[in-house]
Amino acid sequence: MALEAGDTFGRYELVSWLGRGGMAETWLAQLVGAAGVTKSVLIKKVLPEYADDEAFISMFISEARISATLSHGNVAQVFDFGQVEGEYFLAMEFVDGKPLDKVLKRAMRSGMPALPIPVAVFIAMEMCRGLHYAHTRTDSSGKPLGIVHRDISPDNVLLSYEGQVKIVDFGIAKAQLLRNFKTAPGVVKGKYLFFSPEQARGEDVDARTDVWATGVVLYELLCGRLPVDGPPHVVMMKIAHGKIPPLNQVRPDLPEALDRIVLKALSPDPTQRYASSHAFGDALAEFLYANHPRFSSLSLAHLLRVLFRGDLLNEGRELAVPEDFLEELKAWRQPVAQERIPTVPHIRALKTPRQATAAVIVTREFHEEAPALPTAEVSPVRRARAPWVGLALGGAALLALGGGAWWTRFRNAPAAIASAPRAPVQEPARDTAPDAGEKVPEPPPPPPPVDNGWNETQVGKLLEDVYRLGKSNKDLPRAAKLVQTCVDALPDNADCRLAAGLTYERLRAFDKSALHYQTFLERAPATDIRRSAVSDRLAALPLRKPLEPTPASEAELESSRSAVLVHLTRGQLKEALDAATQCVTRLPREPECHLLQGDVLARMNQVSKSARSYERFLAFAPEDHPLRPSVLRKLVELRAAGP
């Protein structure tokens, strides 16, 4: 069923759509109890098209069974599991914060070479505590459940604004209680760059594979890069032979004691690693409190509040950060001198972030174009607010929440436009973020143009009507027509462009939304506090836009994808190849059918046939197909590995 913010879903009221990943989508929701008592939860719901996918539903139920037994401060708890109108869902703890991978990227964009040493060590230590709890869980008779996460990576770790560290997604965990859903021999799951050597070989794994993955995460947090990188066959070969560069070769300021701790966790031989996550956590705790005795979860909370201050302001929140922490932060922002970093054969050189252009961040499986650095300063601002600030913060809150509530926050913004004084002429917008410690000047109000017979009052009244109509999904088309009137009459008005971008995004007209967001960024002054949030929303639009297969073949293609996945999950490579070949036979010009066939053939080590399938994908796929870069990489890797 199609859901919208404000809908009732079982016992829950949906607040805002958070995202779609793989075969499930997530929503922020509220459990409404008696006497108006509410509790925020995260709803993870299987997408309707996968409701009949036996393998995926089994995996989803497995996640519910495992996660529901876990109750620990470092594990996101599952509260509820069930079906609504035939659709499975999980209701789990909502962590008010950010994923670890986004925290690392934001830290590096703000001028840090990587995460500060005590922060990285503390996060890994807390991960170890949560993992050890899961590893040692027993059933009612005291028999160990044998839970292993097997998918530990930065995007499965959440950090809260209160300094909590939470592990999520036990969806592919292995437990002896799930005897009917064990990984088939030779089938590996998760992210290969975090695989332990035994996991990469498709062997049975135990808790020490999570020790390895936690070590990889800690390495990345400390060095700003992974210990090994590249295509799967290259990565597997390096980790199998223990080709892990010492951390202090990559980041010379790291203590030798910490280097030894991490490299022990990354021993290719499981018997040489820490015997448990508890032992690994104890070693990290000993190092942390011997060298940084005052560090605590509050230190982590302060760092997140500084790094994401712009996001919080966009939501109408301003969390306190003490001045002494800001002084410590200045030292953390000093990058290691480039001349002190030797070249390491197994790792790409770390590039110093540039201010003038957006940085290209090398991530685990793809290259991501990072958004421009935020223009808002991170240090706390304590000033009396002029009337126009209400407009700025209201617009920021509008951007951040994505549900009905943000329309209310922004409703009174037009009044601020009408009452604000005229702004002086703005100097050209700059693309760079202010230096640490630099005070951001108060931005002048962005007055709407008065040509074409329009004045501030008329613009304010029109936008008020747009935001009022935008509260209701059924009135969104009317809001779009109204805001288009503003855009047509005043094409250079930043407020009209922002309202249009938000309206079209809610209508899922993502191309139009992107056009208006881009124009807003071109027209709004560099000091406009809303710019950072608009940039983030613009960058996220391609992820929300669904891929568009040939309309006539969409159902057929989806059926083929599902069939191939089921067989691969069960280790049935021949059956998976048959399903992919049927897709090619029925839809010979559909590029993704050839991609499915190529992927299965690659798993079967039929290099030349796999390469031909990938070549056919490239022949049929349009130039802007989002999967072209990854298929090109696969083809290059196959040719390099082939005879």
Automatic annotation (TrEMBL):
Pfam families recorded: Pkinase
Which amino acids does the record list as binding ATP? Answer: 45
Which UniProt key words apply to this protein? ATP-binding, Kinase, Nucleotide-binding, Transferase
The segment annotated Disordered runs over: 420-453
Leader sequence residues = none
Instruction: Respond yes or no to whether keyword ATP-binding is given for this record.
Output: yes
Q: Where is the composition biased (Basic and acidic residues)?
A: 428-441
PANTHER family this protein is in?
A: MITOGEN-ACTIVATED PROTEIN KINASE KINASE KINASE 20-RELATED, SERINE_THREONINE-PROTEIN KINASE NEKL-3
Under which name does UniProt file this protein?
Protein kinase domain-containing protein
Protein species of origin:
Corallococcus caeni
